[in-house]
Amino acid sequence: MREAGRGLFGRFFHPEARGGSDQAKAPEQGEASVYQNGQAELRFKEYHNQPETRALFTKMADHLAPFLDHPVKVWLDHNDSYNPGGNTPRRPDMQIDFDMVTINMDYWDGNELPDCFFHEVGHSLEDQLASIAHQDGKELLPSSGPGCQYQADLIACYILRPEEFQKYLDIPAVKDTYQAIEQLFSGNNFDELRKALVGLMVDYRHGVETRYQASLARLNIPDAPDNLARPAWLAEDYEFKPFNSRSFRAIEKVYREKQD
């Protein structure tokens, strides 16, 4: 289970829960366009409300909404470029009945935004995963591992790249975790979503590149200054390395060596 207030690299707190010893970043306040489907709610600020951005995130929310058993509010936000986001769990004792998720739209590689989304919202599914495991006598991988967060990482990988599991299903804890995730999603393999994401990400990248080139034109400079980051995928040596896949590297090191 995720620790209260802990995201992937940082700490995030509900605006209503400020004032403790940990003063942490909350989403920027102000007007936002709200999209809701069941228990999932998205909040788009004006600078993240482009058609291609809305299409990407509403598609992902629509596919995950049927599996949420409590309200999850997602803010598209800003943070350090290597922080994908955060998830602060609900606190009924403080009259906060929803999980607050932030997705960092400044994450260094925009190609990983689906990984950021499904990882952070995946934390909101961990209690259900634990309940399934308890009922079926399964031994889940722990929530956290060396340099990774197994459960949220693997929920995202199941949705986006399920083939990554195949090499590790001979490890009992990996097989049990995979089967629990499969049961959680009622056999939905998200094939339609993965196909849709291909086109949605083409549109998203095009929008980002267009705005980037427009910014360069306004500044009348040939290349970006330090405060105007070039999209990561435009670099000559770019390679897509989704952060959630780190859990398989940890499994290889920790569980494979133990098994051998």
Structure description:
With 260 residues, the chain is of the alpha/beta class. 39% of the residues lie in helices and 10% in strands. The protein has one domain (15-189, 242-259). The protein has helices spanning 51-64, 113-122, 126-136, 150-160, 172-184, 191-219, 246-259, and strands spanning 33-37, 40-44, 72-77, 85-88, 99-104. A hairpin with a 2-residue loop joins strand 1 and strand 2 (40-44). Helix 3 packs across helix 5 (172-184). The longest helix has 29 residues, at 191-219.
Would you spell out the secondary-structure blueprint of this structure?
Blueprint: E1 33-37, E2 40-44, H1 51-64, E3 72-77, E4 85-88, E5 99-104, H2 113-122, H3 126-136, H4 150-160, H5 172-184, H6 191-219, H7 246-259
Parallel strand pairs: 2-3, 3-5
Antiparallel strand pairs: 1-2, 4-5
Helix pairs in contact: 1-6, 2-4, 3-5, 4-5
The proportion of strand residues reads 5-15%
Q: Structural class, from secondary structure content?
A: alpha/beta
| Strand element count | 5
What's the order of the H and E elements?
EEHEEEHHHHHH
The quaternary structure here is: single chain
Largest sheet: 5 strands, mixed
Question: Care to give the gist of this entry?
Answer:
With 260 residues, this protein is of the alpha/beta class.
Keywords:
single chain, 260 residues, alpha/beta, 7 helices, 5 strands, globular, disordered N terminus
